[in-house]
Design goal:
With 468 residues, this protein is mainly alpha-helical. The protein is 74% helix and 0% strand.
Length: 468
């Protein structure tokens, strides 16, 4: 019966994650937030359905590899060419500025320099999934603001691969010549591949593509095999398997078989990514959050304000108008899902301990969840400041959809209450008729039967004598 119990737990986890993901999508939020919330709800700090994470860790690691694979495949290098200077400069300054800023904080808390590098990398990265959802909600996805945002996100995704190499070799402060050569090799390989894919007018073909084309049973296996092949090769050269998966996705996304790979590997990737973000939710320790609430809140405020201000200043320096710079910086004002990947790599390399890892995970989750709300509120308040009308009139304009939704909900609630009152009245009448008890002395007007007096027949005649 132990196997049946395990299957029951897996079924409960799958259903809860699906429902939470659907709820987030319904409210125009990324599904990954729902998966994380499901993990919190079912984890040790919640209902306790999942206490041993060993069974899910392997699938979560596969989810990381496939996350890098599909991120690489989704990158449009040809459109990136038109904005690459702005995006690369902004990303480079973000990384350098974030590391320097966190270096000051680590000295304040007495943390080692390795923490500054790790936290600086995490601070520089934003969430592609959340940013795209926010841009869609704002209607800015295909505008100048959207193009700049997507360009910076692509540059950040390209920077993740060298970051993984650096973080994996931070243990003990051993940033020697070998590590620098490894970083230079990874960057050189990445740049060479990008140049080749963008300069080559004819799209490349994946190895063995003729063996899987037109074969639905082999196509998913072929797509995944290509991912794990380059991940294994990277591991053999003592590089991060996720880096190899990213290169595999970059090649597949700019090949003639992109559509084939995306269609057949997509469902498997969706399941494993759900497992990955679910495992992140399982890591959330609510007891740790409550015990360190002040530090978590302070770090979240620092992340949100610093990222927004830094990005706005960078874009303004590059010639963007303040309105566009602030809009882009608000969309990029959260920590990204790659913070989980970098944190896991640092934990496995003994760069950080489990307590610092929990802190990083909690701050990242809080940033992801609050980002759409913060972005929407900041955008509306910015609009409010530019309006000559009064506060009340402007708030009605800004929150017209929410106001209409509230009125609709109030009307439905009133109708429901009226129907409930009618049913309660009928129930009281039935009890009165069967028991003879007088439960309600007040009748609704217009509901007396014809020929009956409006007053109750059991009511005594009032005394008409003058009391005086």
């Amino acid at each position: 019966m132990h196997g049946a119990t395990d299957l029951t737990g897996i079924a409960i986890i799958a259903v809860a994650a699906t429902l939470c993901g659907m709820a987030m999508v319904k409210y125009r939020q990324p599904a990954i937030i729902g998966y994380i919330l499901a993990g919190i709800f079912l984890g040790p700090s919640g209902l306790g359905f999942v206490t041993d994470r060993e069974n899910i860790n392997v699938l979560a690691e596969l989810g990381v590899i496939l996350l890098l694979y599909f991120i690489g495949m989704e990158l449009s290098l040809r459109s990136f060419r038109y904005i690459w200077k702005l995006a690369l400069f902004a990303t480079a300054v973000q990384i350098g500025g974030s590391v320097l800023a966190v270096l000051g904080l680590t000295r304040l808390f007495g943390w080692p320099v390795e923490y500054a590098v790790l936290f600086g990398f995490c601070l520089a990265l934003s969430s592609t999934a959340v940013a795209v959802k926010v841009l869609e909600g704002m209607g800015e996805l295909r505008t100048r603001t959207g193009r700049i945002t997507i360009g910076i996100l692509i540059a950040q995704d390209l920077a993740v691969a060298p970051m993984l190499v650096v973080v994996s070799n931070l243990a003990g402060g051993s940033m020697g010549l070998g590590v620098l050569l490894e970083v230079a090799l990874s960057v050189g390989l990445l740049v060479s591949l990008i140049v080749y894919l963008t300069k080559n007018r004819k799209k490349v073909n994946l190895p063995g593509h003729h063996l899987i084309e037109g074969k639905p049973d082999l196509a998913p296996l072929g797509a995944l095999a290509w991912c794990f092949l380059l991940a294994s090769i990277a591991g053999l050269f003592h590089m991060s398997p996720a880096f190899g998966a990213f290169l595999a996705g970059l090649i597949a996304g700019n090949s003639a078989q992109r559509k084939l790979v995306h269609e057949h590997a997509g469902p498997v990737q969706a399941v494993l990514l759900m497992v990955f973000f679910l495992s992140i939710g399982l890591l959330i320790d609510l007891g740790f959050l409550f015990d360190n609430f002040g530090m978590v809140l302070a770090m979240w405020l620092f992340v949100t304000i610093f990222k927004t201000a830094l990005n706005a200043c960078i874009l303004k320096f590059q010639g963007e108008k303040w309105k566009s710079a602030i809009s882009v910086s608000l969309v990029l004002g959260q920590l990204g899902e790659f913070s989980f990947v970098l944190g896991a790599a640092a934990l496995s390399a003994a760069v950080i301990d489990s307590e610092i890892h929990r802190l990083l995970v909690i701050v990242t989750v809080l940033s992801l969840i609050s980002s759409p709300i913060y972005t929407d509120a900041a955008r509306r308040l910015t609009h409010l400041a530019s309006q000559p009308e009064g506060f009340r009139a402007t708030m009605k304009v800004l929150y017209v959809n929410e106001w209409a939704l509230t009125r609709q909900f109030s009307k439905r609630l009133l109708v429901l209450w009226q129907r409930l009152a009618i049913h309660i009245g009928r129930l009281l009448n039935m009890i009165e008729k069967r028991t003879g008890w007088q439960l309600s002395a007040v009748r609704r007007p217009g509901k007396n039967k014809p020929g009956h007096d409006k007053e109750s027949p059991n009511q005594p005649e009032p005394n008409k004598e003058d009391p005086s």
